[in-house]
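Quick one, probably user error.
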């Protein structure tokens, strides 16, 4: 008898087999009355993680009145999609995704998202209350600057030149966050004062900005991105947990601004990697002083939060061997022996999910390695660094396991 035998039996006792999307009923029902439903993924390049999240999201929107989907993507690019699905941008779904041109573009410019965007546009066409699609990430410093200038040219042209002058501080860094980070840390050259001056001025005038087509929200969140991105790039060179914590705290702040814009009864669906939505306190991230979206939301909103993790035993994935390089379809090897994914596979080589509750949490209370694949990936070295020690039943409220997965289908690569 090995140490996983009891765990495998517990999985057999509590897992629900997935043969069709209708088999996800219990997860939809469990999440339906929550305010924040977080849907994870074990990689940024796996088709089934996207399609299953899409199916759950469609039902939460159509059957339970959820207000929007917020994703681990750039605000400006996602806002283009948001404008399209609400009829403010007279183009087509394929064109709306062309704004996802910054590496790794395949995360959102893929066939799986294309189908969801088409569904959202069709839904909004007849819905009493339109749903949105927003990006929560912090990376779009230059794109957000450009969006702020574009908006001011329309609504406050008298302020454009002063804002451009302030933003010119960033010109020497050639739209590369790492260049700015190095300059700020090693040479003491940063743009903090310029950013803060502009953002204080924008905030003071916020109430005067038009609300049509969410113009005020767009300006507010782009301003927040500028503030936090500048802080993030300064922190990233120093090492430690600060840059990670700035990023995840920013994503919560952006989410809350969208929630406020949608009113007190708003309900959010959040798509992010497991490392962001699974409570950091249930992993070794806590030992390194790292917090994440899942932890922050649980601490602030408690029982109104529902987190669903995802995983796979083997298959293929879209990823790159180095940041910024070309991407390829890579083989995902069988899960590491003794890992959470290995135990799920041993319990039956089929798709399944588990709902964690007070009665069964203790059965899934041991610390196990839990696979995490990023946009940069080396399958041959996976066993050295791609498994996060986790108390799985404390990290998530439910877990979806797809035994064999396949890679995403990028549109523009």
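Nope, works fine. Designed sequence:
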């Amino acid at each position: 008898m090995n140490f996983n035998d009891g765990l495998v039996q517990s999985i057999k006792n509590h897992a629900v087999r997935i043969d069709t999307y209708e088999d996800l009923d219990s997860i939809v029902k469990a999440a339906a009355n929550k305010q924040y439903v977080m849907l994870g993924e074990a990689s940024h390049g796996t088709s089934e993680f996207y399609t299953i999240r899409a199916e759950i999201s469609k039902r939460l929107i159509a059957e339970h009145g959820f207000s929007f989907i917020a994703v681990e993507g750039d605000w400006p690019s996602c806002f283009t999609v948001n404008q399209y699905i609400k009829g403010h941008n007279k183009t087509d779904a394929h064109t709306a995704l062309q704004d996802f041109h910054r590496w790794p573009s395949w995360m959102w410019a893929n066939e799986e998202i294309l189908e969801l965007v088409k569904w959202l546009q069709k839904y909004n066409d007849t819905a009493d209350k339109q749903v949105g699609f927003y990006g929560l990430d912090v990376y779009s410093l230059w794109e957000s600057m450009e969006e702020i200038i574009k908006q001011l040219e329309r609504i406050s042209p008298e302020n454009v030149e002063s804002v451009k002058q302030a933003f010119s501080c960033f010109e020497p860094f050639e739209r590369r966050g790492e260049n700015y980070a190095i300059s700020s840390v090693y040479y003491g050259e940063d743009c903090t004062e310029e950013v803060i001056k502009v953002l204080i001025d924008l905030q003071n005038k916020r109430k005067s900005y038009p609300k049509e087509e969410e113009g005020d929200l767009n300006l507010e969140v782009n301003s927040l991105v500028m503030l936090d991105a500048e802080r993030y790039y300064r922190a990233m060179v120093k090492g430690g947990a600060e840059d990670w914590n700035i990023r995840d705290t920013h994503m919560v702040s952006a989410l809350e601004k969208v929630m406020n814009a949608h009113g007190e009864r708003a309900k959010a669906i959040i798509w992010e990697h497991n490392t962001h939505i699974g409570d950091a306190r249930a992993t070794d991230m806590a030992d390194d002083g790292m917090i994440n979206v899942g932890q922050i939301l649980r601490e602030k909103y408690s029982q109104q939060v529902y987190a669903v993790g995802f995983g796979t035993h083997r298959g293929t994935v879209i990823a790159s061997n180095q940041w910024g390089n070309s991407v390829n379809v890579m083989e995902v090897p069988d899960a590491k022996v003794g890992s959470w994914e290995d135990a799920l596979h041993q319990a039956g080589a089929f798709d399944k999910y588990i709902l964690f509750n007070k009665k069964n949490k203790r059965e899934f209370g041991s610390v196990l390695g839990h696979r995490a694949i990023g946009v940069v990936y080396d399958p041959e070295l996976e066993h050295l660094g791609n498994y996060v020690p986790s108390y799985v039943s404390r990290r998530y409220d439910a877990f979806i396991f797809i035994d064999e997965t396949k890679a995403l289908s990028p549109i523009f690569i």
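Residues 368 and 389 are 5 Å apart (CA to CA).
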